[in-house]
Amino acid sequence: MGRLRKSRGLDAASRPARRLQRARLGDLRLWAGLSLLVVSMVIGATMLSAGDDTVTVWRASRDLSAGSAPADLEPITVGRAVAGDRYVGSDVDVAGVLRWPVRAGELLPRAALTQPSAAATREVTVPVDPMHAPAGLQAGDVIDMWSTARDSASADARPDAVPVLVLAAVRVTAVADADVGISGQLGVVLEVPADHVPDVVAAGRAGVTDLVAVPLASQAVLS
Question: Are residues 56 and 75 in contact, defined by beta-carbon separation less than 8 angstroms?
Answer without folding.
Answer: yes
